[in-house]
Q: What sequence folds into this?
């Protein structure tokens, strides 16, 4: 799998538009849906309520701290490490139709620049979300930078897939998060929420396997 991100650019005022994204989800679906499918394939077999803090934090994928200058390279490393690890995964351990559908899960958006490290979501999710409110790195789907229409939305955000067994816990984490740095993607004002609305609409969530 080859990921070709757009070159970084400075943020300029104007209508909502993507400035930088990994993988390239701005104008094409192939890379984004491939990464989403691989995320689901990897996480579905490992998600367990017995170990919420560790089951989806594979040590070999662990990124460095989420600092501004390294966010997109960090996302590329996680995506590539997971991709190559899946080459040794037996087909029978994969969920059926791992082709970009959400398979009963939901997409979460995380705004790292809005995080205040309050620890409430970490406690509510028993460590599934860490002290920085960050979802586990095995579940990461993409990192995006946009020029948002809303002055209250941060420019950078991460999208992650939440397995079905953790939906209730993450909902509690969102509820206790005072700075709103974690939201269900469909509840956000991001450009990717609009682009992925066929995956995250109420009808799609009810069907659980609605294709884009």
A:
């Amino acid at each position: 799998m080859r990921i070709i991100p757009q070159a970084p650019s400075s943020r300029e005022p104007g209508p909502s538009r993507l400035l930088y994204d990994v993988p390239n989800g701005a104008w094409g679906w192939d890379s984004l849906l491939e990464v989403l499918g691989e995320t689901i394939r990897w996480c579905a077999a490992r998600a367990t309520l017995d170990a919420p803090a560790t089951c989806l934090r594979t040590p070999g994928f662990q990124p460095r701290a989420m600092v501004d200058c390294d966010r997109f390279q960090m996302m590329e490393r996680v995506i590539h490490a997971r991709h190559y690890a899946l080459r040794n995964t037996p087909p029978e351990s994969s969920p059926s139709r791992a082709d970009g559908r959400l398979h009963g899960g939901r997409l979460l958006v995380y705004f790292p620049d809005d995080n205040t490290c309050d620890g409430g979501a970490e406690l509510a999710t028993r460590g599934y979300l860490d002290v920085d409110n960050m979802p586990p790195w095995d579940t990461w789907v993409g990192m995006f930078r946009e020029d948002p229409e809303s002055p209250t939305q941060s420019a950078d955000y991460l999208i992650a897939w939440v397995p079905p067994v953790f939906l209730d816990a993450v909902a509690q984490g969102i509820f206790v998060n005072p700075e709103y740095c974690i939201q269900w993607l469909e509840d956000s004002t991001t450009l990717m929420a609009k682009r992925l609305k066929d995956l995250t609409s109420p009808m799609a969530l009810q069907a659980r396997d609605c294709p884009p």
Remarks:
- The chain has one domain: 17-207.
- DSSP finds seven helices and five strands in the chain.
